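S.,

Sequence below, as promised.
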Amino acid sequence: MKRIIVFIFSALICAGQAVLYAESEALSALQNAAPVDSLNMLQVQKPVELPSGLTEETKDAANSPSPLSYFPMEKKMRYEYEYTSSEFLGTKRVVVEFVEYSEKDYTTTVKVTVIRGSKIQSGTFFIQLTEKGLHSSDSILAGKRTEIPFPLYRGKTWEEGSNTYRITSLNAKTAVPAGSFENCLKITAKIGDGDAGTASRYYASGTGLVYEEILGEDVQEKIQLVSYQIMN
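The prediction came back faster than expected:
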């Protein structure tokens, strides 16, 4: 019995020495290890995925105009458009004026005057800036809508009612009576999921809306910019 007790005691001592040795080795390894480079760890992490449709061409915001440059709602602007439609003969002249901008409400009051011969019609609507984009309470051809969505990138899509909209280009070209414009924001639409027609519109940086066309199942309409100016 005495031998067995001595043997067990010796085994316990050996086991304790082994544990102490292992702890000593682990501590030594920690002390001699190189410090963790947290910056390198961040650099090898997976980059944030970009929204669908965002390409190398348009992902750098520094190379893309501000969304507000396509629709200078904070300025007193005057636009004159030529308006044609399958619903009437000839053309109409449409004058759009940005009358007043409210910094408190981020809202612009817009006056619209439609002239055809001696007939003159006028009305007022509003454009509001929100975190989701620029929104009009009315428009010349399409009524209430989102003029320009945020964030702004090629391939962005959104829905309003039964219509689906898409930003198809940030460098489109178009020619209208007011001149030729490059680097335009182009928005296309499928009306009624595409069953009722299509639409497209162009916004020129520093100018605003320069061209819009609706090719509907029942009606075809178009406006083209004839002239524009910044009012004092």
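The chain is about 15% helix and 45% strand.

Coffee later?
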